[in-house]
Structure formats: C-alpha cells, structure tokens
Amino acid sequence: MEISQELIDAINDQINFELYSGYIYLSMATWFEEKNLPGMAHWMEVQADEEYSHAIRFYRHIVERGGRVTMKGIDAPKTEWASPLEVFQDAYNHELTVTERIYKIGAIADKLGDRSTQSMLQWFYNEQTEEEKNTMEIRDMLKMIKDSIPALLQVDAKLGARPAAPAPPLESTAP
Ligand code: FEO
Asked: Ligand 1 centre and the CA of 150: distance in Å?
C-alpha cells in the first residue's frame, strides 16, 4: 500500500528527533571528556552513533516506500550538567520520550492499517526497551555509589568497554 503523508510526516519528525538525540549524546560525551571520564565519554559517543543509525533506519523506510524526506533544523542540546548522575538521569528521561514518540507513530500505523510500518517499528520497540534499561541501570549505579571517586572510576572503566555501534542495515526492515 502507498504510505500516507501523515505517516511520512510523523517518521520524518522522528528522523529529526533521532539526529537531535545524537546531538544530545555527543554534547554529553564532550562534557565527560572535560571531566576526565573517558569511559563515559566513549559510551556517549557510541550512543550518539546509534542514534544516527536509528535516523537512517527511519530514513530508509520512507525512501523504500517511495516517500520524500525533508531534512529539518536540529535544536541545540543542553551543554552543562551538575554531575554524571544528572547526565544519565537526563539520558534515561530522554529515552522515555523517544519511546513515547515511537509508540505514537505506531498508533498512526495501526489506525491506517500500515503493516509495513508496523513491522519496521517492531525493531524500535525492542531497541527502546534496551535503551531504557541501559540508561536506567547506569543511572541506578551512579545513585548507589554517591560521591565515591574510586567507584566512579570503576563505572567509568566499565562504560569504556562498550563495543562500537553496529552499522545501520541497508534496508530498514532487515533484522
Ligand atoms: Fe534512538 Fe535512543 O533512541
């Protein structure tokens, strides 16, 4: 079936939001660099990369369905945080917002009976569960260690071991 303009517009907005998400995480990465926490900076850089790959997945879906994507301006993200805990609390809150937005696209696809978009979104539902879990776990670890510098450095080393983000698929619906 032909993809509706309503769905194209909603997915196009999400492409913009995923790029904005990447911008947010890169802003967090550079904050961590400045604080001499290279592991957390690395984690955020990988996260930014993942967000760009999410944008590409959505982009590919529109293109493969014969639609046109419009690149829009990206808002400037926050640049200062009071603590690593505040950064990861923001990251967790941001992922909750992303999930909500993707569910809204799902509701439009349901309303229109667009099964192709529903199938594409399934990957994102699982991904969001993972992203919420990851940011929540790190937020909770940072809450637990309070002001302990040795424990903070341990968490930093752990986050520094995060593997690089996988490249986005050439087709949006690939597993
Ligand atoms: Fe693309 Fe972190 O959601």
From this structure: 30
